[in-house]
Structure formats: structure tokens, C-alpha cells
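Board notes (copied after class):
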Amino acid sequence: MNGKVKNMDDLNTRLHLLEGSMQNLFVSVNTSLENIRENLNASRIPQVNGSLEISSESSANYSCIKDFLAKYSGVTLSSPTETTITTPAATQVPTSKGSRGREFLILFMRNHPFARGSLNIYVSSDSGVMANISSSPKLDATIKLAVDRRLNITHNSKFTLPANLACEYGTVEPKTVILQTSEPATVTILDSFHKQSNDATLIIPTDKLSNKYFVSTTHPYRSSSDFYSQFAVGALYNGTNINVTFKMKDTSPISLLGGTYRDGDVFSVTLERLETFQVGHATDLSGTVITSSKPVAVFSGNRCNQLKSGACSHMLTQLPPVSELDNQYIVPPFYNNKGTLIQVISESQNTVNCSVGDRVSTWLLGDTEYKNVEVTPDEISVIVSDRPVLVTGFGMGGSYDSYMTVIPGVHQYLNYYKVVVPGGYDENFFCVMISSESVNSLRINGYTVDHYERGYQVYAFLEKKFLVSAFRVENGSFELTTLDKSPFGLLVYGHRQYDGYGFAGNFVLI
């Protein structure tokens, strides 16, 4: 981390006020950097790692600061005129970075109208970390009081946020939150409505955010707003100009900020840092394109929709930027499900080959065109395209309700995952897509795969043979890795009566 701190007296005062607690030291540095960032119209706090250069007009208090830092953090200061604070390097783990990071932009979309459950954030790391959750100064004071916090957490922890942090339709709101950790972590969210209408998604680090996304939803079961397809955008920077080019399944217009928009129309809005804008509509918005002048986070899905289940359920996922998409995918079925709906969206003219069992289909997709295909509960799909595509999968339900997730591309597979499986579900599964020669190298919490009950296993073929397996697991924290460091794909999902959730272990390129 590199930054200039020009007032040594002020820094000395801060350090002495916080003496005795390294956690509070982290908070002070974090808060100071937030203020610097706002003044410079920057967008993110530098990582708490590396070095901090301190340029001072006076070194009168230098030795006091030096003694304090040496005593409580092992940090060593060099010369007082050009000082470098070097913090310990991040813990090394046998992994490509993927979705692990130190800063995350999070928002929650609208859930079922009767939803009164909590909004949950799960943080998982290899060691204890200091975490900071902060919100916009424009956020309602009552909500902000329940959101903002700084604390030391263990290997995994759950933060519960109030339901009224969820976004409303068609209005600019300061409802994005920033989560920062002192060491690399994996973050997922679970949008909860008691024991119904939940879904989960992986959150990607801010350094992987970009400025072009495709919306993925399903066609609403009814035209009621309860079933709306929806998407929401959260801004990381001040002065972020956003353009939305609508793709609508039918010609029904949508009204936003005094304007009326139809299929093919472009809606524009400008957001400041940590502001959100959410759109909901009674038709399928899949293929809608969102572009921005600066990096943003985009989430999409359905407020509450019904596929083959007996009732509607919330569906959501954070979307990867177009720049992070792949062109090779293995799409496993969701185990104990009535079927899987697969959606493929292409940025430009594209040839897509989809193999389902012994059947091979070739699709010629145009710009931002998408294709839906439904497969049976025991069919593996392999998708290979000339150009990158976005692939999402929807568990269509059973005695439980529908859910969705982004499907990871083969070039997005990692050799290490740290994930948390939420509690309260009757069954939870890890679906692993791994090259057949590396199966014996796979470890789940240190155990070989034979330690776990296997729901199914089938083979899929690309340049090499992959084994696709669903393993039944309990709730809790899990490490998945391969001893030979070979990458593999991971989906996590679970079921209980009238409810289901799903998320991917990673969906950005490595």
C-alpha cells in the first residue's frame, strides 16, 4: 500500500489513542484512507499490505511512532524523511487468485414482497482477518447504524444485515456496501426470507469489476411485480455514467425516471460512489446490456419466480464482466432436481456447440442474442463456442423451489477453494468438475472423495476427460484442493422444502 501522510503529529495522536489494540490500529488506518479516498474522488482503499510511505514536514514524533509500531505489529520504520512501513506478506496458499480478494462491493436486490428475513454475508479465509463493512454517508442513519462495523473474525464468519438494505425499483439509492479484509478472503451472500425464497451468490473482488455486463433472468411466471425479472447496478466510483440497452421478451414498455423504454431503447443514469439503481419488469430481460464509464458491480435474477417448483423463489447471482467470460463450459445437472435450465448469452456473432448426452446442437447467435435449453435431471451438457459467452444455470425445483447460479468456465477453474455452506438446509451438495487423472488428488477438508456420499458421477469430454460428481456435505466451512495443483470447477447448492440456493466457487478468469 502506498500513500502520503503529511501530518505526523496527527498520526502520532491517532496511534496513541489506539494503543493496546492492533484491531483498532487497522480501523484507524482504514478510516483515514477512506477520508483520503473521498477527497481525491478515488474509488477504493488500497490493500492493507505492502508499504506505506510517510512524508513528514517534521520528524519530532518519529521515534514514538516507531516504538509503537515495533511493539504492536512488528513493523519497522526506516528514515524519518522518507519512511516505509512494511507489513507482513499475505498468507500463501496453493491457489490461483480467482474470486479471493480484500475488497468487495455488495448489494441486495428485492426479494418476495413478504420477505422479512435477514441479509447474510459469509466471509471465509485461511486465517483470522480484520474486516470492515462500511456504507455510504447518504444511507439512512438507522440502516447505517445496523450495517457499519469493524471487527476481528476467525476463519469464517457471518454478518447479518437488515432487510431494508435491499434495493427498491427505479430510484437512485445509497445502498451499496463495501467489505474489506486484511487478508485474502472468499465472500458469498445469502438473501434470506425465513425458510422460503432464498438464494446465494459468490461476490467477486472489486479489482475484477469492469464496465460491460449481460443480464441473465427467467421469464416471469406471472405479470405481477412479485415475479419480476430484475437487475441492479452498484457504483464503485463517483460520477459513474451507466447505459442500459434493453432486450425485452415482449414489447411491454418500462417507465424509469420519467422516461418510457422498450426493447432496443437505451436508458442512462449517473451514480455516485456506493449508489445503486435497480430495474424490475414483467418480461424477461435476458440479453440486456449494461455498460458504464467506470467499473460497477451488477446483479441479476428474479424477485421471486416459479419454474417447475410448486411456488416462487428468489433467484439471484452477481454477474461476471464480459471481459471475464469463457468459451468452454461443463454444465452439470442439479442433483435431486426436476431439471436444469441453461442460458447462453453471446456478445457478438458466434457459433455455439452444445452437447447434451449423445445429442449435439449448433446455434448461430447474433449480437447479445441468447439461447435457453432445458435438460433432464441426469444429463451433462458441454458448451464450446468460437467466442466467449455467459452461461447461467437454473435449478428448476422439486419439493423445493428454483434457484440460479453462474456456471464457471473451464478456464475459470481453480485448484483451491474456501467456501461456507449455510445451515438450515436438508441437503447440500458440492458438484465438482475435475480432469479424470486428478480425481485421486482431490481433497475436501483433508479427506479423499471416498469419505463423502456421492449423489452421481458421470464423464464429460473436452480436450480431455472430466469426471463430474455431486458430493453430499453438511453445513460449515470447507477447503477443497488438489494435491497435484490441477484446477477443477465447483458449484455449491442446497435444498429444503419450498427453498433452494446455489452459487459457483469462481466465475472470473485466472
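Comment from the instructor: Residues 1-95 have pLDDT under 50 and may be disordered. DSSP finds four helices and 33 strands in the chain.
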